[in-house]
Hints:
Order of helices and strands: HEEHHEEEHHHHHHHHHH
Helix content: 55-70%
Low-confidence stretches: 1-16, 171-176
Structural class: mainly alpha
Bound molecules: zinc ion
Distance between the termini: 34 Å
Amino acid sequence: MLKKLIITGVTVLVLVSCGTSSLGRKQLILMPAEQMDAMGNEAFKQIKQQTPTEASDDVNRYVTCVANAILKVSDSPMQWEIVIFRDDTANAFALPGGKVGVHTGLLDVAENQHQLAAVVGHEIAHVLENHSNERVSQEFAVQQGLGLAQALGNPQSQTGQMLMGLLGLGVQVGITLPYSREHESEADEKGLYLMAKAGFDPRESVKLWQNMSQSGGEQPLEFFSTHPSHETRMVRLNQAMDRAMKLYQQAQASGKKPHCKSP
Length: 263
Ligand SMILES: [Zn+2]
């Protein structure tokens, strides 16, 4: 516990201007992690005020079971919060500070725990790889300095709206500033390794994204924010599948066999 606190403290204190993602990509990271977390917390609070949450214990237990299995192998020192929102769109999102939102509509598209793990892994990967920080750094930090969290307190202001969009919440505020294709691919790949490490079958991710593209319709869902072509996504996932299958087999051998019961 003490070790965790120290690690968190150090992360907050160090203001890095340059970083590298876990998959080796160079990143521009200008925002202090503490500020990003504060923005994520504030945005999540607002969403919880605006959107009804799922009351069913079975549904909550199912999604939390999948998320916890992944978080256990993620080496993240954060305290994560998983909330299931009553919303028919097959969507999910994640925010800095370890906030994950899953829409009930997703449970119609993700047919089993492995497919749900593919989405949750993808979302957790966006947070672990600091994609929001990178996006805010690229768009805002240089011009506006670091007093951005205040803008979130006034989400109707122009800056507030842009910030919500940069956090990936364009749907809620009526504008969409999507993740880059690069971020989506990285979250797909990292998410694939995370689910496999947790003992979920990575091959199910391909089926999940197929289900998604069939049910996506006109919704501006997080996963299709930059409209990566269906084929490109499948090709990339299959390229990473050998490594993912090795992680999956190791997880199985070490007894990681999650049984999250679908309601
Ligand atoms: Zn994404």
